[in-house]
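Changelog note: in this version the structure field was regenerated for every chain. One regenerated record is shown below for reference.
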Amino acid sequence: MNVLVCFSSLKEFNTCFEDLSNELIYEIFDLLDFHHVYQAFDSLNARFYNLVTNSTLPIEVNLSSISKSTFERYNKDIILPNKHRIHSLHLSNPCLYDDISSPIHILSQFLHLKTLSLNNIESKHLEYLLPTLVSLPCLSSLSITSINIIVNRTAIYSQIIRLPALKYCSLSLKGSHYSEVPLPILDKYSPIEHLIIKHGISTNELYNLLSYIPQLHRLYVCYTLNSWTTYIKPSSFVLPYLTHVSLDLSSISFAVFEEMIIDIFHLVHVLHIFIRNNNDQMYINANRWKQLILSYMRNLRIFDIRHETWSRNITTNSQVILNTPTNKFTSSFWSERQWFFTQQFIQERDRNCTIFCSIDPYRRKYYTLCKQIHPSTCLNSKKTHLQSVQHLRIDNENEIIDCKYYFPNVTTLTLENSLSCTLIKSRSLSLTKIIEILRFTSYIRTLIFGSMPLYGVNYKSIQQNQTFQLVSNTNMITNVTFKQGCTLNKLQLFVALCPRIQYLTLGHDTEDLESIVRFLLKKRNENTSHLCSIRLVSTCPFFLTTLRTLIESETLLTDYILKKVDLEHALSAFDGDHLEHLELYSQTNISQTDYFDGKRWSKLFERFQKLTKCQIELRQKGRRGIYDNLLREFQRELKEIKELKEKWNMKCYRSCPGYHGTVVSVQISASL
């Protein structure tokens, strides 16, 4: 192995890597994922084996993209013998939580662990895991993302508050937004300084939680909701160190927000707020804001607001302008503080959006390029580098042309249906443009396709294209999702374009799954050598058996885990706090009686408060006797549960061929 070394004399020469000192090699190791160090150097020779296994340097363990067999070797050779060296542990593979040899079962022995990240964890694992964390004296950073419903989030909060050294905490706990069980009276206060809540939380729940975190400096709340129970606020508490606050206020009134400012947020220096489809006009009332800031927010330096109003009634530009009372945000009060604002009028598919927001986005991480029906009224017309944006969504390809923004640090790119021209329905998506985008966005790790027609594409010739080969050799994409399915030809093309793919998700319309699985698992397929997880959405229940038979009969894999999730589990994987468009389609010849439960549907829909479009069609066939009483009870529930009937328009039909037929076809539908 050779490496180029440069000195200040500007002389250059090649030296053998093995000749480098141990200290320099350790510095190189420190720049790499330790699992990659283990794979590359552990078996090289005796010296490097000792450097890897006998070092006293801290280890960061990332078990996100690792096969079962590789994990078993890594666990045996590195993790278990070096528990005292592990400072950081990241898990996101749901299958590893079920593995009896997984390090989560002995976490209390990782006494020097500082950072713990648990993604896609089920509630049953979280319940027994959290109490063990109290014994970790160095744990200062904790991130948790649940994959299914957490019935009692208060119990989770109570355990986290007890962690003695915790400074950073990020939580995304799926479940009912209205879980308002108060925290028990605790004799401890949390040392947390940075708190991120990525699930919906009521104002009562938030007050209660913050009363136990007096050292808090930074707070981010993804979705704040009005409380539905009468609540007595905890005795007066102060957050003297809280300087940065970011809130989604889409579901609470300005009056409630104003009360929160007076009670707990009056000392903040930096305020970021987001409001969508909230009818309270006080959020865009300049005088009301001025009064609040002068009276209670004297320390405020940065004021960042984004107010979106979506409408399905297509309006003219003049109508939008006349109905938007934002012109008073141009007075001297705002300009003296260097707070400037812009107004945008956007048309997306069959709806309009009026956006009022700060001109300087203050490190906003998400940005959407979509069709504008009116030029934005913005004072800044120069080309702008949006350094903070990490997730770029492109809704309309025409907005790429002459775009005044650059996104040098984007890591996630979402391409929606309207990337192809929405005015000419038959025009296909331009693969060339996708390749050009990827050519100049080398940091992208995640690629999501809303749809991918690609009509008329010559799959073989385009792979000989010089730009295609350049992008294939340089892009770092590891996660690809096709929301509406994929054909074998398309998949072969995109696997060639993204040969470092680790996670692949295929939507409900995917054709010829057996051929696709066979292609992905071929042992001689270099383009899929990094693939460690395949997720098939909305496949028929019996496909799991077919898939297992295929893998074993053709020996496609020798060491693997297949995991099936039901409808509720699948829905829990989505972020209900942000989901706007939900479509579910299923057709099977197997009776799935759990679908016929009105209360269960109500609980599921309760999570999706921001949906603007919903279409559900679930069809199944089964023996008539199974359904008779079940359907009668379900249809009665649909009449009694007002929300299912009026808001979600949920219905249940059945048909039975022939008067004495024994087979019945059933359809459940819902729409918004």
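Spot check on this record: Residues 567-671 form one domain. The first strand starts at residue 2 and ends at 6.
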